Amino acid sequence: MHSGNWGSPVNFDPAAYKSLDFVLYTSMSGVSIGARLENELGSSFPSVNYGSVPANQWMAVSIPMSQLNPGNQPIHRVDIMEGSGVSKTYFVDDLRFVGSGGHSVPAPPTLSTPATGATGIATNPALTWNASSGAATYRVQVSTSSAFSATAVDQSGLTATSYAASGLQNSTTYYWRACAVNSAGAGGWSNANAFTTMAALPLVLAAPALYSPWNYATVTGANQQLVAVF
Hints:
By secondary structure, the protein is mainly beta. It has two domains: 2-99, Sandwich (Jelly Rolls); 111-197, Immunoglobulin-like. Helices cover 2% and strands 42% of the residues. The protein has one helix at 65-68; strands at 2-3, 17-25, 31-38, 48-53, 59-64, 77-82, 91-99, 111-113, 118-121, 126-129, 137-143, 153-158, 162-164, 173-182, 185-186, 193-197, 209-212, 227-229. Strands 9, 11, 12, 14, 15 and 16 form a six-stranded mixed sheet that branches. A four-stranded antiparallel sheet has the order 1-6-3-4, with no helix packed on it. Strands 5-2-7 form a three-stranded antiparallel sheet. The longest helix is centred in the first third of the chain and has 4 residues, at 65-68. The radius of gyration is 28 Å and the shape is elongated.
């Protein structure tokens, strides 16, 4: 995976940052992750192997800049690499350089409701979580995929510890998660909770209003028609 391109390089003072942080998910076993920096000057950067990551969960990865860029060279692109030599699928999110100014990203919040395994949840649920120390805002995602490869809800900049989701489908299992953000960047994602929305309510017809013949009307003839309006 490449972040950045030569046409619009991401150039900054590398000495101002202490680590490259990101979160990663894979459903495959035996995935070994590493990173390497690049620039358009053709400078040489070491490839740093972080190591194996577990399957079926989001993993927070932090690699020191002292290993990635020991010479404090300009940086224009980041490569996240799988090092086993076999083709593997993985997802990377929240890629960022963490500053060395003393601030740290907040810890992941703890999800409250809907709790994992909850059923019969409305299609416009109130998502709530516990506050994370040092957080300025929060980001919430809802997806039908436990890997969050596509999202039904992706809302950032939330200052409260709750969010009213909308537009979900009936009889569907969803996963949701949250992360906390401050001036140092975004913290890792919380563990995801899974919930299932309620079934659609059956259509109930109102009682009909009799239209013809009228109340107390005198009916004559053998083929009179009874009319009711719903």
